[in-house]
Amino acid sequence: MKILAFETSCDDTSIALFENEVLISMNTASQIKIHNKTGGVVPEVASREHANVIFDVLDNVLQQWNSILQDIDYIAVTTFPGLIPSLLTGITVASTLSQTLNIPVLEIDHIQAHIFSNFLERQETDIKFPLVCLTVSWGHNEIYHMKSMFEKEKIGQTQDDAAWEAFDKVAKMMWLGYPGGPIISKLASEYIWKWNNLFPRVFLEKSEFGFSFSGLKSAVKREVDKRWELSIDDQREISYEFQSAVNEVLSYKLIQAAKQKEVQTILLAWWVSANDDLNRKIESLAREEWYNFFAPKKKLFCMDNAAMIGILAYYRIKYNMFEHQIWWVRVWGW
To answer: Which domains does the chain have, with CATH numbers?
Structure first.
């Protein structure tokens, strides 16, 4: 069974080809250089760029494995959530191919796909249920309790800014460029002085699993303004202190959720799961509490990518989690 997967929810045009659960080819066209000029993603610009490159990306994927479209059995495409203009590019191409080739196209939830990125290059039996999973992205910060592979309950979410958005905004305050996450992380790793606990840890109710980073962001702004012209040492210190404050809250909430739900497995997913400091903090706490901790095996799988779309499609097909074949997908909420 071959699955062709499309991911165009934001600013990466990504297509992957699967043979059952095995990723055999993937190509992703990034728009980071384009959106760096505006310090963030402009939906209309992103949509136009998707349209410009999507067929080249598709050709690259097929050529990497010497495949043709007629070999495909299923098509999977992200339909929600995401930027509507960007989503429509992938949906239109996927739906058109499904009708041309007379094969079903399957709707995929972007958030659920990020959770399933943990199954990439792993055996299904490696990850035991029930579990709790922390998803951390630009717009989403959520904790899910999953009793089984397709049975999940959201038990906590951000009340305002998500972690990745806070990373971007702090980077912008210090004129560091876009995207902020990798830049802040690199500067923080270069900080070699003492920890000064500059910024607050906002836990809200410690027994609950909500997040809030707007106050932390404001505290960073006050610190930046106080220092006027920032030296590279200032940038390293602020980056380190800010990242520590974010990651301490994220890791604490995840471990508390695992304790409350009495699970033995914890997952990390989405963009900030590529943050080395966060992985180390959670791994250390998990080891202390005897939890099995999983994060995506490659940093590539933490980003928006078509591999996560394909692996979720595979397991949904395997367990017959599609009620019917879909021949023209919709943008959810329309």
So the answer is: 2-115+302-318 (3.30.420.40), 129-296 (3.30.420.40)
